[in-house]
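[Meeting: bench + compute handoff]

Bench side (C.D.) handed over the final construct sequence. Compute side (W.E.) agreed to return the predicted structure before the next meeting so the bench team could plan truncations. Sequence as handed over:
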Amino acid sequence: KACEPVHVQLNLDDSMVAVINRTYHPQKGLKIEAEVYSVDGKRLHHQEQQIKMAAPDAYKSFSLASVLKKGTGVNLILLRLKDASGKLISHNTYWLEATHKYHSLQEMPAAKITATMMGSLKNNVSNQWTIKFTNPTDKIAFFIHPALLSGETEIRPSFWQDNYFTLAPGESIVTVITVPARLINGKNLKV
């Protein structure tokens, strides 16, 4: 994620939300969205900002320091960056706790997510599927690591466009998985 051409991040030294443009093209109409949640899924803060950037450039947007100082326990920070058309181009998740005690993450309420097949491409070399993951619950779906399985065995290698992602209540993400065709011929597969 950190090597995305245009990337949203939280600077941990000053709690500033920042955007990095590593391209040689100015970026106009970008929208930053930042949300802070408690581990039980309660939204504590929401903030948005429209920006434009030179190329290449780093832009410090707004600080979450005061929000994070008020928080108790583990705070989950979900950052999204969308282009002028509203397409998600970067997202990032942080979990912070002032005293570095993260035990409550193990006690997070479970969120049951859904997976919907959006499309597929197959050829002699590889198979590719586009899958939409949705969190229809009022809980945080934390650190989701999807896997392609045949029975109970994970198919490896499988190349995910995005994995280990976190979904806010009601949020969806679309990702692509590519697998060498020779590994899946004749197998019943599930995600």
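W.E. noted at the follow-up: The mean pLDDT is 95. C.D. will use this when planning the next construct.
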